[in-house]
């Protein structure tokens, strides 16, 4: 019974004491060697691959020695049999995962974790130190779409969160025994956006935008909808049976997939929808040269550059719509019903209060309040002038005693 080390070059296992393998490879100096444990159960030799952690191999061997001494059944550690790459393939092939609206994003997030942690890494070799190392390496990389830009803290947190979720699902399905990084904490984020467009900025952006982008910008600015909800809007979801048009999003088109939403159309949005030729095709509302599209990143970026608008992303339009609806005098519950926000805390992240709102703050009418107090004193038979004189006299005496200090 003991620990073996596997040569990364020829895959031959031997004692941890050997320095050089038969193939000539310096095993002890290698960083990619794997550890195994070797023991006997009822006279039958058994080997388990543990991974690249010698400490994990020692812990597992100690666990087996204790079980044998106590006469307990030795259960094979499933974590030592599953690699990170094979686990990702299994996870992404689950029907429940494929049905998620975030499935394409999950593919990207888990691809990064498997790439840096190693697809052949045994699950049992994952430790909190590995997560810290991953976070450091990932933050030093550059984004592929944006050379010169590093991944944000939010992005790295989402990747680690996706890894933890994948491992938790594997535990529930008895693919592995435990999540070795369940206690990995996410770093605190500061990703609250506080950018909205003024009316002048929006008109400037609308003026320089491409023809197919204009109706999308109008709807995003006036209606508290998400990008996918706008882009994939169908004419069957536009209710034009009355003078006031509505957008009726079914539950499967909303973010939570549970609650349908109804949004009244702004007159300006209604006006441009009436002019769209796609209205007679009964398919998607927005098209380009008669063809539907699933992205407008380039045209939107071009419009921002032409309009001279910085630090603005498309999702910020949702902040604009919610804030403008609040400024128009709508109550919070009505806006939340249209926007789909379930909690006040999340709604307040989108409802931005700027300097203009603060400047319009209302003050108490002191004269009117004084008149009200005076009237109240008279109602109970007291002379307001006498009461005021008594209060001033009392305050002056207290000042002499040092009660009121500046």
TrEMBL record:
Keywords: DNA recombination, DNA-binding. The keyword Transmembrane does not apply. One of its GO terms (molecular function) is DNA binding. The keyword Repeat does not apply. InterPro entries: DNA_brk_join_enz (IPR011010), Integrase-like_cat_sf (IPR013762), Integrase_catalytic (IPR002104), Integrase_recombinase_N (IPR010998), Tyrosine_recombinase_XerCD (IPR050090). Residues 192-363 form the Tyr recombinase domain. PROSITE patterns: TYR_RECOMBINASE. One of its GO terms (biological process) is DNA recombination. Gene3D superfamilies: 1.10.150.130, Intergrase catalytic core. Transmembrane segments: none annotated. PANTHER family: PHAGE INTEGRASE-RELATED, PROPHAGE INTEGRASE INTD-RELATED. Belongs to the 'phage' integrase family. This is Tyr recombinase domain-containing protein. The lineage of its organism: unclassified sequences, metagenomes, ecological metagenomes.
